Amino acid sequence: MAVQPKSQTEARSETLVARLSNTLRRAIASGQFPPGSKLPSESQLTETHGVSRTVVREAIAALRADRLVEAQQGAGVFVLESPALPVLSFGNLDQARVSSVIELLELRTAVEVEAAGLAALRRSPAQEETIFERHHALRDCFNAGAPTSEADFALHLAIAEATNNSRFREFLSMIGPRIIPRAAMREGDPEPDQDAYILLIDEEHLQIVVAISNGDEEGAREAMRRHLRGSQERYRALLREQRKPV
C-alpha cells in the first residue's frame, strides 16, 4: 500500500511540535523548570507560543516519551529528576600526570573543533547570548583571581549546546569540569607570567566566541583548534621540563 504524502498542514504541525518540544527541553536543561516543578498549563503554553492545543499535547507527549516529564491526573505536568549521566571512565587517566592531560586534550580537540563549527552554523540568538554571558563570567573570574575551571567548563558547554545536537553536550557533561586542566599555570610562576597566561587564554576564547557570533564556521573551528592545540603545546612544554636532568 502506497504511503500518502503529508499535507503542508500536517508537515507544518510536525515542525511546530518539534520546535515547542525543543524549546521546553532547553528550558528544563537550563534549570528554568527544575525537577519537581510544574510546567505551564496547556492553555498557557498555547497562548505563550502561539500554537494549537494539539501541538502542545504532542510536544508534551514527546517529553513524556523521553522521561523528562510526567502527567499527574488533575494536577498537571511535572518535570522528572534527570537521570544521572554516567561519568566516562578512561583507563589509567590520572590528572596529576601531564601525559594524561595531553591525551584528554587530544580527545577534546577531535570533538570540540566540530562543535565550534556547528555552533557557528546553528546557534540561536538566545544561545549566542548565553555564550557571550559565559565568556564574560569567565573573565570576571580571571579579574577577581577566583578559580576558573567551572566557568571555563560552562563556556565550552554553552558552545556544545549551541550545536543543537544534544550528543555534544552529553559528551562534555559526562566528562565533567575535569576537561578543564589548570596545571599549565603553576603556583610558583611569577605573577607577570600568570597574567600573560590568563590574557592568552582569554584572547583564545574571545576568538572562538566572535567567530561563532559571526557565523564563521571555519573560523570557529580554527579558533577552537588553535586554543586546544595551544593547550597541548603548553602541557608538552611542562612534560619536557619535568624530564630535564637535574
Describe the 3D structure.
With 246 residues, the chain is mostly helical. The chain folds into two domains: 12-79, Arc Repressor Mutant, subunit A (Orthogonal Bundle); 98-242, GntR ligand-binding domain-like (Four Helix Bundle (Hemerythrin (Met), subunit A)). It has nine helices and two strands. It has a two-stranded antiparallel sheet. α4 (98-122) packs across α6 (149-161) and α5 runs antiparallel to α8 (191-213). The N and C termini lie far apart (80 Å).
Properties at a glance:
WH-like_DNA-bd_sf, transcription regulation, elongated, Arc Repressor Mutant, subunit A, 9 helices, mainly alpha, 246 residues, 2 strands, Four Helix Bundle (Hemerythrin (Met), subunit A), DNA-binding transcription factor activity, 2 domains, two-stranded antiparallel ribbon
Compute the number of structural domains: 2
Q: What is the helix/strand order?
A: HHHEEHHHHHH
| Ends apart, CA distance between termini | 80 Å
Number of strands: 2
The CATH superfamily of the largest domain appears as GntR ligand-binding domain-like
Q: What is the CATH topology descriptor of the largest domain?
A: Four Helix Bundle (Hemerythrin (Met), subunit A)
Give me the secondary-structure category: mainly alpha
Biggest sheet, strands in spatial order? 1-2
Strand content: under 5%
CATH class of the largest domain: Mainly Alpha
For the biggest sheet, the summary is: 2 strands, antiparallel
- Rounded mean pLDDT is 81
What would you report as the Rg, rounded to the nearest angstrom?
Answer: 22 Å
Proportion of helical residues? 55-70%
Shape: elongated
Biased composition (Polar residues): 40-50
InterPro entries: GntR_C, TF_FadR/GntR_C, Tscrpt_reg_HTH_GntR, WH-like_DNA-bd_sf, WH_DNA-bd_sf
Region (Disordered): 31-50
Keywords: DNA-binding, Transcription, Transcription regulation
